[in-house]
Amino acid sequence: MFDKFREECGVFGIFGHPEAANLTYLGLYALQHRGQESAGIAASDGAQIRHRKAMGYVNEAFDADALAKLPGTLAIGHVRYSTAGESRVSNAQPIVVDSIHGQFAIGHNGNLVNAGEVRDQLVRDGAIFQTNSDTEVVVHLFARSREETTDGAIVDAISQVRGAFSFVMMTKDRVIGVRDPNGFRPLAIGRLGDAWVVCSETCALDLIGATYVRDVEPGEIVVASAAGLKAIKPFVQAPHSQCVFEHVYFARPDSYVFGESVNEVRTDLGRRLAQESPVGADVVVPIPDSGVCAAVGFAEASGVPMRMGLIRNHYVGRTFIQPQQSIRHFGVKVKLNPVRSIIEGKRVVLVDDSIVRGTTSRKIVRMVRSAGAREVHMRISCPPTISPCFYGVDTPRRSELIAATHTLEEIRKYLDADSLGYLSLEGLTSSVNGGKSRYCTSCYTGAYPIAFPRDEAAYLQLALKLNGSDEAPKGDAAAEPLVFPLPVLEKDSVAS
To answer: Which terminus of the chain is more exposed, N or C, with fewer CB under 10 A?
Structure first.
């Protein structure tokens, strides 16, 4: 519906609670914003892992009868939006298998950059894949490991993959959480009585009444079992590359991600945006829901009052009947409607978190003008997005990213705004602890912290082709961050 990056996935796991499946259902409900294509839960009673997965929202995939068929005191769950692999039930997670190490279930948030290379080798060795999800390579690596212990087999499998991953895994008697050495994706640890919980965001802990303990650290494996919670760090330490877009857009504002309040970070982004791109105006209007926190900060720093001048319809499903062209901008108007009494005759500052293609922003600006705004100024609480993500976010081709191919003035004209301002990269990284030293900003810079393997040439060429360039990547792809060149496109590629 909206022109946004698609969320990655959400994972949840709990050990040591008699209502493990029910609590996992609730945890996934809280993480629904991270994936709406499919949902799945695997649960164990200590003797057998049972699982169910289906397409659709969590409440569509599970009812009371389905949850009753998942007994046990430990469970893991997953909500998915596909970034690697087709949207079909066979690719839904958790993936559950029987192996020499016993039953094993896994859910994944992220993307493995060497999955193609590893998969090809496994196929040559006789492996038979049931999905085209990159997560399945970890299943095969685990099943084929010669390590004698389950923990050893998990370490062995994960040491062979590269990229962004927060895993929840489960055997018949333990739940495991894993975070990649760079720490791209979040993974929190919580406590509910004697039970241990791992999940993508702390909002899932809040819903089930659990207490946030800490984050799984980059490169750490935590194992919850009858012996308690054990933590090991078997991997070589790597520079932190936490995804800054978690704070900009992905995570719920009531969550703590990477140890920081998402709400407070987004509000501070708005304050810095007002300082960097001031404008004379009568009212600040957030584009709901993604722009609300930044708009609060913008209004606070600028002294311009904030009003909810756009009202969102929260009851729009995933599909609806599209009328003919008789209703202009129907796709946006069915979800947003301007409040004329707030907007009419006013100089309006619209605040949002990002612009991807610009198509939706253009319609919103024109809708606000039609409601009587005297001026419409657009302010964005992140830098211009110029590069796709290869670490678990479904981003458009580079040629479709308006900021990759057009100047600020060209974008302003396309949006039909009186002015346009983005937050600077320095402003963004100044709002998070550790700044540039701890966060991945590749979508704003084109510099990728984890290079693709040299023998992934076919993958690289496909990635370049899909992102609008036939040029080779810059730098030594075997050792340096990968930089994709900007394509040269016609200036009217976003013409109305």
So the answer is: C
Domain ranges within the chain, ordered by starting residue: 9-238, 260-439
Domain with residues 9-238, CATH architecture:
4-Layer Sandwich (3.60)
Please name every residue paired with 111 in a beta bridge, in sequence order, or none if there are none: 164
9-238 and 260-439 share one fold: no
Q: What's the CA gap between 344 and 347, in Å, rounded?
A: 9
Q: Domain 260-439: give its CATH code.
A: 3.40.50.2020
Two structure tokens written together for 3: 């022109």
Q: Decide: 79 and 168 in contact? Cβ < 8 Å.
A: no
Rounded CA-CA distance 142/18 in Å is 28
Tokens read off for 272: 């810095």
Nearest-CA neighbor of 366 among 385, 400, 408, 338? 338
| Residue 54 · residue 109 · CB < 8 Å | no
Which residue numbers are catalytic? 9
Enter the pTM of the model: 0.87
Angle of helix 115-124 relative to helix 136-144, nearest 10 degrees, comes to 50
Spatial distance between the Cα atoms of 377 and 81, rounded to a whole number of angstroms? 33
Whether the CB-CB separation of 460 and 492 falls below 8 Å is answered with no
Calpha distance 138→159 (Å, rounded): 10
Write the pLDDT tens digit of every residue in 321-357: 555 555 656 678 788 999 999 999 999 999 999 999 9
Whether the CB-CB separation of 139 and 95 falls below 8 Å is answered with yes
For residues 211 and 418, the answer to whether their CB atoms sit within 8 Å is no
Joined together, the tokens standing for residue 371 give: 């409601």
Give every strand in the sheet of 419-422, ordered side by side.
283-286, 347-352, 375-380, 419-422
Q: What are phi and psi of 49, to 5 degrees?
A: -95, 125
